[in-house]
Each structure stands twice: as structure tokens, then as C-alpha cells.
Amino acid sequence: MDSEDDIHKMFSSLDEVPDTFSYKRWITVGRNYAEDIWNYDVYGEIGDFDKRVLILHGDKDNLVDVSYSKRAVEKYNNVEFYLIKGAGHGFEGSNFDEAITYIWQYFNQIDIVWKIDLLEYSVAKKERTGRFRYFVYNNLMGVI
Question: How many domains does one find in the chain?
Fold first, then answer.
């Protein structure tokens, strides 16, 4: 949600935006991206969303300041927010386990658990591999 802020810090006007540029030091984006978000007010949009929302944020996140999540919490009508102590932008180790706990609670609340292959969850959790993380990010996030 800090994209608009970042773009305005990088360029003082749309005229300064090149055809492509490095964004956040790890991805190359095009001028169209900057044009799309230049005056976009994400907080103005999300207030109309009437479904349940879960926001997880690490208190040690060095990519997205927690203030963006806190501001989003003020705008959504039906939101649960958890600040995960010690977590960065991604969740690792015990922070990952805590995040998964919140996600499963959320899935239970919105009656989505029946859509999940629970065997895949239990196998990945037992093996402590990245399989469950891959499964969540690539299969479940589109379901929500």
C-alpha cells in the first residue's frame, strides 16, 4: 500500500518516470505501473469492501511499515489484525507457525476449510518443509 508514496518519493512528476525502472531494488516495472498508481487512493477503495479481512504484519518488517496495515485496519469494516512479534516481511520459523494459526482460524471463520486438502497440510507441517508455504501461497490465496 506504500506504492504510491514510494513512486512520489522517486519521481516528482509523471514526466520524470522512464519507460522502465527498478522498484524496491528488486523488480523492474514499467511507466504504466507508475501511471496506474500515481493518484490511486487504496484506502479510499478498501472501505467499501464488505467481506471479512485478515491482516498479518511483522513488527520487524523493513519493506512495508506497519503504519500501512494499521491505516488499513481503520478503513475496513470487518477486519482482524495481528502484529506478529519478531517477524519481518516474510514469516519464518515460529513466526510462520503463528501466522498459519491465524490463517487457519480465519479459514474456519469464513467456512473455507473444506476447500483445503488437510492431508497436504499435515504432511507438510510434519516434514517441516516449504511444501505447506508453497501450497498456501500458490493455492489458497486465490480462494480468499
Answer: 2
